[in-house]
Amino acid sequence: MIELKNISKIYQQNQKNITALNSVSLRIKPNEFFGLVGESGSGKSTLLKLMNRLEVPTSGDILINGQSLNQMNEQELRKMVQKTAMIFQQFNLLQNQTVKQNVKLPLKLQGKSDDALVANVLEFVGMTPFQDKYPVQLSGGQKQRVAIARALVTKPDILLCDEPTSALDSQNSFEVMKLLKQVQTEFGTTVIFVSHELPLIKQWCQRAGIMEKGNLLAVIEVEPEEVVTQSANYYQQVVEYLQ
Ligand SMILES: Nc1ncnc2c1ncn2[C@@H]1O[C@H](COP(=O)(O)OP(=O)(O)OP(=O)(O)O)[C@@H](O)[C@H]1O
Ligand SMILES: [Mg+2]
C-alpha cells in the first residue's frame, strides 16, 4: 500500500515559488495497476519522483506499507528506494553499454552480480537475442523492453512508469503495455502508469487519478471494457483498421 498524505511540493526557481503539487492525498493498493492522467505541468512526474525519493515533499508524508518515509533513516530509505524502479519516455539507456550491461547496471550499483537473474529478465522481455547489441541498434519498443528488464532486475515491489509509451507507435505501445501487465500479474508488482493516452488508461488500468494544476481532482474506477484484441500482426492490424 502506498499512501500519500496531504503532499505538497513547491519548487523554487529564480526566487519564485512553483506549486507542483497541492495537498494531494491518495492510496494505491498493493499490486494495483494505477493510471495517472493530466495535462502537461499538472504534477504527474513530480508525484512519481516523490515515491522513489528523487524529490522530497515540501509538506505531507508518504507511507509505504505503513512506514513513513519522513521517519525513515538513511539506511531504511535506501532499502525502500531499491524496491522501487522507474521507466521513462526516453528509455534512459546508457548508449555505450550493451543491452546486457545496461540490464546489469542496477545490480552493479548495489555491489551485486547475478548472471542467471539478468538472463531471466532478458528472457522475460524477449530481448535475449539482442543482449550484445547497443541501444542505437534497437527500435524504440525494444529499447523500452530493455529498460523494463533493467527495472525488473532489482525485483521491485513498485514500478513507476513515466509516459513509457509516448515515444512509441501503437503496436510497440501495445507490446509494452502487455509486458507491464505481465509484470503486475506474474510478479505481484504495483504499477503506476503515467500517460496522456486515455485509451491506454482505459484498456490497462484498474483505477486512474486525474491531475490538474497540482491538484488530484478525482480517482476513477476504470470500467473494464471489452478489450479490442489487437492483432499481433502489423499487416493484419492495418488491414482490419482500413477495411
Ligand atoms: N526541478 C524543477 N524545478 C522547478 N520547477 C519544476 C521542476 N520540476 C517540475 N517543475 C514544475 O512543476 C510543475 C509540475 O511539473 P511535472 O513535471 O510534475 O508535470 P507533468 O504533469 O509531469 O508534465 P508533463 O506532462 O509535461 O511531463 C510544472 O509547472 C513544472 O514546470
Ligand atoms: Mg512529466
UniProtKB/TrEMBL annotation:
Catalytic activity: ATP + H2O = ADP + phosphate + H(+)
Gene Ontology cellular component list: plasma membrane
Keywords linked to the UniProt accession: ATP-binding, Nucleotide-binding, Transport
Entry-linked InterPro entries: AAA+_ATPase (IPR003593), ABC_transporter-like_ATP-bd (IPR003439), ABC_transporter-like_CS (IPR017871), ABC_transpr_LolD-like (IPR015854), P-loop_NTPase (IPR027417)
Top-rank lineage group of the source organism: Bacteria
Molecular function, one GO term: transmembrane transporter activity
Coiled-coil regions listed in the entry: none
A UniProt-annotated Pfam family: ABC_tran
Regions crossing the membrane: none
Protein family according to the UniProt entry: Belongs to the ABC transporter superfamily.
Function: Part of the ABC transporter FtsEX involved in cellular division. Has ATPase activity. Essential for cell division and viability.
Record protein name field: ATP-binding cassette domain-containing protein
Gene source species: Vagococcus zengguangii
Organism ancestry: Bacteria, Bacillati, Bacillota, Bacilli, Lactobacillales
